[in-house]
Amino acid sequence: MTKEILIYAEVTRDNYIHTVFFELANKAQELAAKLGEAEVNALLISQKGLAADYREAFKNSGISKIYVCEDDRLKTYSTEYFTKAAVDIVKEVQPEILLLGATNQGRDLAPRISTALNTGLTADCTGLDINEKGQLAATRPTFGGQLMATILCKNLPQMATVRPKVFKPAEKDNIKPADIIYKTVNLDEIEKKVELLEFHKKLTTEINELDSAEIIVAGGRGMKNADGFKLLKEFADKIGAAVGASRAAVEMGLASHDMQVGQTGKTVTPKLYIACGISGAIQHTIGMDKSEKIIAINKDEKAPIFEIADYGMVGDAFEIIPELIKQL
Ligand SMILES: Cc1cc2nc3c(=O)[nH]c(=O)nc-3n(C[C@H](O)[C@H](O)[C@H](O)COP(=O)(O)OP(=O)(O)OC[C@H]3O[C@@H](n4cnc5c(N)ncnc54)[C@H](O)[C@@H]3O)c2cc1C
Predict the structure, then answer these.
(1) How far is ligand 1, taken at its centre, from the CA of residue 310, in Å?
(2) Hey, what domains does the chain have and what are their CATH numbers?
(3) What is the pTM of this model?
């Protein structure tokens, strides 16, 4: 029997397939090759009539089948309905591996699916592989980031969640029209306990799109105070960058939590990451070490950030950054 790797294709509020799906689909191709005869398939739960449109979006992801559960009660995310739909389909399909993005939705859904199916779940993985026994080897930080643990799951499906941007989507198109397989799930037996009345988007005064930025200038405790972050912002504006921060800087009130990069913040993969006054603790670097190029500015030449930096400047950020702005 062909083994299946099933990936949950989250539909966003704007009716797009969440980008983390394409990142997982690309990684899953690698896992499938190691498993031997394995298919990479998608699980789509959505309102009625959209599957055909999504088929187009899936075209380049190399997946073979899209299992679809469509119902107008599935227009917006609901824990009860989505869990029921996902659990019923996964029970029927019996995939070897089930992957979800560690998004708000994925974090709500994954543990419920794993509990209902009495299987294990490794959350927020930073690496996925297939070991010599053909098992999913899911790696994630543990003990506050001091250790990296590789976790195996005894039952099927072996489940894992991965944050957006940990893996890269396929660079080349993997064009393969997928088959749509409609599945019927009886939602009537579900007592919905929560009703979404309205959705309020959090409004921030500044647009700081860390997720999509090609260049990020990030500041840590070494940027010292609000003036330090003002300087970073000025530098960032000059080079068209977004501003990120270490947790220390967030805790000092110099930046907001949505600017935090790292284990308990965002994972980013810009073309260029400029770390200013950041020491390079593993909990920070785990969120940015896959950036294409890293430049570190730090006055301590022994700071661990230099171990992962492509270029380093040893010196006072309050002297270097104004000089860079001047030169620019
Ligand atoms: C469970 C857990 C989760 C965590 N999650 C995260 C996370 O998501 N993100 C995160 O960032 N951290 C996280 N941390 C915290 C992490 O361990 C570090 O404490 C934090 O990253 C340190 O931030 P920093 O590098 O800004 O500060 P520090 O480690 O204090 O480093 C400051 C650096 O600035 C340099 N410096 C000082 N003055 C100057 C100057 N004038 N010019 C140039 N350089 C200067 C210093 O040499 C030093 O290297 C987490 C910790 C735990 C336990």
Answers:
(1) 19
(2) 3-182 (3.40.50.620), 215-327 (3.40.50.1220)
(3) 0.80
